[in-house]
Design a protein that fits this description.
The complex is a heterodimer of chains A (100) and B (169).
Chain A: H1 3-24, H2 28-52, H3 57-87
Helix pairs in contact in A: 1-2, 2-3
Chain B: H1 6-24, H2 28-49, H3 52-77, H4 90-111, H5 127-136, H6 140-161
Classes of the chains: A mainly alpha (100), B mainly alpha (169).
Chain lengths: 100, 169
Amino acid sequence: MSELQFHLGLAFALFSLGVVGFLARRSGVIALVCLELMLNGVNLALVTFSNFHKNAEGSSLFLFVILVAAAEAAIALSILVALYRRTGSVYLDDFKSLKG
Amino acid sequence: MEQPSVLQYVIGVFVLACGCLAAFARNPVVSAMALMGTLFSTGALYFGLGAYFIGAVQILIYAGAISVLFVFVVMLLDLKPFPVNIPGSSLGKVLAVVAGAGFLVALGMSVLPGLHGAANVAGEAETAKAVSLRFLSKYMLPYQVTGLMILSAVVGVVVLGRPRKEKKA
């Protein structure tokens, strides 16, 4: 296994873990944690390719991904806190009123 | 160096273990702490690749700020460990595992064979310079827009976190 394959394999594994957790868990907080796992896997792939091609485009994208992830985490967590304050629950199955 | 070193294997196992714990722990506090471990050890992987600037950013912003936000909110909400048995959710879980495994296999089969390369440690010493040059020339507009997005996120969080006014009866 080369170093490139090792890092890309780790990135794919992190992304897949995030997908499984996001789809299987019904808790809002853990869904967000799994979202961060997915973003982290993508970041690892970006930086790995950037490193192996000696090209800083991937590293620049990495910084943008981090900024967007920070904004997303802040907004989503404050929505969760507002939901918890209003209903006393963060479990996604409790919020089906938009389903009709 | 073509092969990953022993240290990189150890860090990789740690990343995967923390990732599994973050995704499948019953207790949200454990999940948030494991997320912090995953992000931190991914930063260690970046150092192993020679991307020192990226590793520092990862540890400062991701492991330092974002995961602290998660831990803070989980502690604030005082959540109970989530029950395992939810009626009617087994099909969803099977589908989730199938989707995740399918992703892993598809990505691995399509990309991994035939790719060989060693880390360019020497070429990455200039990462900070190259990235900042791009941010000031090619990515100037996205950079400014990202600043606007962060500002709107801050305003949004303040609005969401404000206590609701009681309506006068």
